[in-house]
Amino acid sequence: MLNLLSLRRLSWGSGSDGQEKVVLSAVELATLRSEIADLEEREAHLKAQLEHIDELLRSARLSGYLYIRTRWEALPGEPPPIDDTDVDDWLPRFVVLHGKCIYFYLSSTDISPQDSTLLSDIVEVGSLPSITREDEDVSYAFYISTRQGLRYECSSISKIQVDSWLLALQDDCKIGCGNETSSSNNGSINLK
């Protein structure tokens, strides 16, 4: 335990009973107490993270790491967005489908999500063409469009994972949104 703390050279002395003791000055004792308090605080924070992750994974319908990028649709009267399909701005995010919401975490150990969207705000979910990256890995992709004009593009090297997300989102949005229209030929479902 003492090796974890910053006190490098401790003074050792002998007690009246012949046992060796550590002799600390008042400053060293205060430093030691402060470091112990910091370690206890860090331990409590890590325990809270683990409990949060455990609860999240137990109660989530679907969760896992996906590569995500976001795009905004052009507003009426604006020029169409620049074609940026060659830009590699896919970022790994831990995505959780829980209740009536999708949560986007920077990592699975984060307590608070970076972003979220309600299933009732989703207007369209569908497949995107697969992506071949520079390292020759193929990623399968899908998108989620919201009524606010935000489009989440999601990808994974696992086709099964992408299919699972598509199926879960299409099922949940039918239930959550209630008034779906027919799907188009590209595997998307329109929920306006």
UniProtKB/TrEMBL annotation:
Protein known as: PH domain-containing protein
PROSITE patterns in the record: PH_DOMAIN
Keyword Coiled coil: yes
Superkingdom assignment: Eukaryota
The UniProt record lists the keyword Phosphoprotein: no
InterPro entries in UniProt: PH-like_dom_sf (IPR011993), PH_domain (IPR001849)
PANTHER family: OS05G0595500 PROTEIN
One Pfam family of this chain: PH
Coiled-coil intervals: 29-56
Key words of the record: Coiled coil
Source species: Cucumis sativus (Cucumber)
Domain PH: from-to ranges: 59-174
